[in-house]
Design goal:
Blueprint lengths: L7 H20 L5 E11 L2 E9 L9 E7 L5 E6 L10 E8 L6 E8 L3 E2 L4 E4 L3
Antiparallel strand pairs: 1-2, 2-5, 3-4, 3-6, 6-7, 6-8
Amino acid sequence: MLKRFNTKPLRIVCALLMANSFPLTAAFAGEADVVGGTITALGGGRFQINATVSHADTGWDHYADRWDVLTPDGTLLGARELAHPHVNEQPFTRSVTLTIPEGITTITLRANDSVHGLGGKTFELQVPL
């Protein structure tokens, strides 16, 4: 003879897990990493900087939303805002053009995501003479 169990508590737990799975997935996407970059001198102290960013974007709730260019002492030289998620384009590369003060020989690229903020891998570049 089969014994019947009350499955109502199990159904409630499953419903709660399913309802909350999207935010949990977003939290597990981790921090945004800069995995590559290039710098090209344009003349007059201006440079085009390309950053390749990797992040497990899940959509508008959790995506890489910016990357920054920093001097060795942490001064922010500029940033590239990322206006939308790149769910199906990973990693992706975007550029920014800015002036780098004379005497700065290296820059650091760092990324930001909409949930964790800063904290992923950074990437250092030598500034061409």
